[in-house]
Write the structure tokens for this entry.
Amino acid sequence: MKSGKEVKMKRTLIVCLVGLLVIPGFLLSFTSEASAEDYPSKDIRLIIGGKPGGGFDTYARAIGRYMKKYLPEGVNVIVENRPGAGHKIAITMVYNSEPDGYTIGMPMMPGLYFPQMFEEQKYDMTKVTWLVTILKDPRVLAIAPNSKFKTLKDLQQAESVRVPIVGFSSETGVILANEELGIKANYISGHKNSKEAVLAALRGDGDAVGFTFGSLRKFFVQKQLIPVAVMGSEKRISAISEVPTLAELGHAEMNEILGTYRVLAGPPNLPAERTKYLRDTIWKTLSDPEFVAWSKQAKRPVEALDGEATAKALAPVMKGYTKYKDILKKYVK
Amino acid sequence: MKNEEKIFMIFLLIIMLLMVVFSFNYSGGSQILPLASGIFSALIMGFLVTMSFFSKIISFYQKFETKPVLSEDELSVDEKKREVSVIAWFSGCTATIYFLGFLIGIPLFLFMFLKIWAKESWLMSSVLAVVVLGVVYFTFIYILRVPLHSGILLP
Amino acid sequence: MEIGMFDADVFWATLKIMLNARGILILLAGTVIGMIFGAIPGLSGVTAMVVLIPMTFGMDPVTAMLLLGAAYGAATYGGAVPAILINTPGEPPNAATVLDGFPMSQRGKSGTALGAAATASTLGGFIGLIVTFCFIPLLAKFVMAFSYPEFFMMTFFGLSIIAVLGEGTLLKGLAAGGFGILLSCVGYDPMTSELRYTFGIEYLWDGIEVVPALFGLLAIGEVMDLLVKKKPIADLKTGPQKGVGVWSGVIATLKNSFLVLRCSGIGTIIGAIPGVGGTVAGFISYMHAKQTCRNNENFGKGDVRGVIASEAANDAKEGGALLPTLAFGIPGSAGMAVFLGALTLHGIDTGQDIFIANLDVVYMLLISMLGCHIVAAIIGLSLADKMALLTKIRPVLFAPILFLVCLIGSFALRNSVGDVIVTLLFGLLGYEMRKFGFSRIALILGLLLGNMAEISFRQTLMTEAKLLGFFIRPISLILFLLILLSVILPFIQSYRRRRINEK
């Protein structure tokens, strides 16, 4: 009996010893030191503020998939979803990460600039390293079909126009546009997303909405919304070519700053060669014929601007918004 | 149980009252729900707390309810001891995961809990610890590619 | 263009695609994956689809829909399993199933509960899909009639369930519910973006997430109790165990088919209304069952009809969610949103044209969601007895593993370690609440619905009619009266019962 127990104890002791040796060794394999010479030698993290399945996520994962072709063997792009606080959590992570080219993000612009106009944030969009603009999506002001207003003039002359929005910080573009156009808007906030706000307009709870062309395109095609003004684009949009831009209506300066940008960016102070490497690789990815085919099929348009052009485009946009700080202060508390 | 319950209810009542006080900082529309639900909860909780001190009120109110108004069972001494230790172990486990990450916290906690608290054998404790770690690693890291938290203290 | 007109040729052609070997295999794979994801707390049908989408790239859209539809439909049944066995809903919509499902497990009747859940899920899913599909034009008009006052009434309805819950007394339930509503205010004010109750902690900006809190309150609360009392789950001493086992659950469901029909109807309608959230479907259906069934004293203590009601509505709501998705291109639920995304990925336009250009895809979605229920039912029923054994395991082995699963599941939700801490804290709270008879579900309901109710209430105030809006709109008024009725009814019933007893 005793020897039986002894044998058992010995056996379990050996199992434990092996376990104790294996586990740390196993865990140590996760800490890989990337040598400074060959970049990139480990996976690149793409941190986004959207949830799996959403717009940001779809673009991010597609780019990640096709970028692999242009990266060295064994290097992948891993998309990490860190939703929360209107994308602030994601951009804060990217902003504060090591500027070693292994962490990039997809910030929402100009959305993420607004909070820092009013209060110091843990990030500063003016210092970020811009890598590429995937798409500049203009906004469109549109009227609900059952509304008593039919044209832009009607809106401008009205006593009060009900505008369903998601939240004040995400719709600053619409707020500024309405102020500029002289539309007395009564904003109904609290909708979960743009689709719900549009639904509210469709069923008669709202008169007009102002979201990106990408989100409203479907409703224009089905004649469920009537577009009346394009904001944030120098040219008219071909799909709704009868609709004038804000510039044509006499508000060129405002028109320039109202577009929404889907961009890729890295933390500040990213070394020049790594920035160049990322910019070139991403540009190759966006031009890749398979990626282009995906973009067409998935109806996720891409109209890219390279990193330098992006930086050049966004700086005046952020400056422009700062000018209107006082108007926005009323709504953003 | 009576005293423990009183303490718990008073604790909740204090939190509710604090939240009501804070709600006065919020403007206009933001204030409605916190204030309303805070006062509502605090009133009810206040009534429950008061009632627990006066048995006459308890017996009067009991007539309206089919279930006992204040909890009756008493935990045994053993059970009370286990309560404290379980709370300690679970909190410790969470702290370990917070500081050292899931991949260390899981096997460490399982092994130690099974061996020390549950007094299981060396074999059972270590096998389960390793197996669970393996399954978690396989499912979450290999298949789902979820970056499991790796701990504040580690690089 | 007629949407909702049935094209028999396309339907049969699509069905044939599913009925060959490859089709059945994909249906099977999707169903199993969906069930597993649904059953693991922390993962859901939506997660399953997100994981599967990359695998569909090589497939044609119709086959892709077969896989995704099967996974998603099966997940809603999968979520009932942990709800019944360990008091933890696999997905938030299964929360109402714990009300009677878990007490049944505690009385050793988990097999029955699982069988009933499988059957009710299947029937509910069927009814939901068929009703939606047949009545799309009618339902579309009905849905458009729902505006802010109606949304508020729906959430208020959900909250009023607190009044009829089982665990603990009414007063304590109300206190717990009120506290839940109070907690739901933490974070950004949804309308003005003002921060409430965050005290400088960034993690709290988005408020207290329901899922980690739910895991803590329900699962960890139970787990701690198991360890303290050192008894397995199925331990409550009840009378002689008659009618135990899976098939008794199936039979019970079939016996209550009228109930299934009503609850599926409720679920379908709630699912069809975007903006309300399908989680209430199970609860409202449960309350309806409790109010309308005879001999309802045992609701909350293990009445199988509670499980039937919740699960039928739960699966029917997904059928309902198809409505706004197909009719307006506006997703009726998170799952539908992913479906739309997947369809777009495969090049299918998701406006109303889908009924003309890609009718086969629509039908396949329908067929796969129906088919997976059958497969899930078969699998579920055959495994149910084995799964029921879980409730007899020694708690010391089972409890710590479950504890860890909950922590991991909370983390996996949005990659936030703060959620893990929330789970622990609510676990401690849940244990204490359980000890002293405070209804945890009431707190969850408050947490879940508080914010939603607030939004729709304030939105109503923004309309022209302001407060009157609740009462001058017909649907809103009807709902309000229904709520009053539901709340008063139990009091009248218990008063009558006491009079009878006294005689």
In short: The two ends of chain A are 77 Å apart (CA to CA). DSSP finds 13 helices and twelve strands in chain A. Residues 28-35 of chain A have pLDDT under 50 and may be disordered.
